[in-house]
Design brief:
By secondary structure, this protein is of the alpha/beta class. It has helices at 24-40, 59-70, 91-100, 116-128; strands at residues 3-7, 13-19, 46-54, 82-87, 110-113. It has one domain (3-127): 2-Layer Sandwich (Transcription Regulator spoIIAA). The chain has a 5-stranded mixed beta sheet with strand order 1-2-3-4-5, with helices on both faces. Helix 1 links the parallel strand 2 and strand 3. It is globular. The model has no long low-confidence stretch (mean pLDDT 83).
Length: 132
């Protein structure tokens, strides 16, 4: 299965794992729908872990995906109360994280880590911080 979305039991942490080959037009949109459903059930801050270690996409697909998820006014996630942690260390992953901080993508802070365990630690640290 190229996309798998789950929510950790008793924690506001959603994990989306993506693998190749993936039908970007259908698989990605379906996973975003699942993420939105889980996020809609959470009233507190949310951590989204996107595990892309086994996903191979081209530059144009990455840019299109960023727009679908992050564009202000059309965001598919409650970005004002979310942390996005990307698991994967490739150049395109780093580009996504850097670009997400730009105004046209909402100025979102993303963390990039090498392992799922690191992502969980980052997410739990974010959730443990006092709400401002």
């Amino acid at each position: 299965m190229p996309a798998s979305v789950t929510k950790l039991e008793n924690e506001p942490i959603i994990t989306a794992r993506y693998t190749s080959p993936m039908d970007f037009e259908h698989g990605f949109d379906e996973s975003i729908g699942q993420i939105r459903t889980f996020a809609g059930e959470i009233d507190e801050r949310i951590v989204l872990i996107a595990d892309v270690r086994d996903l191979r996409l081209g530059f144009s697909e990455v840019v299109r995906g960023m727009g679908a998820v992050l564009r202000p006014g059309e965001a598919r996630l409650p970005l004002d109360r979310s942390l996005i942690v990307i698991v994967g260390m490739g150049d395109l992953v780093k580009l996504v994280a850097h670009a997400a901080g730009q105004r046209q993508y909402g100025g979102i802070t993303m963390r990039v880590v090498a392992t799922y365990e690191e992502a969980l630690a980052e997410g739990r640290a974010f959730l443990a911080q006092p709400v401002e």
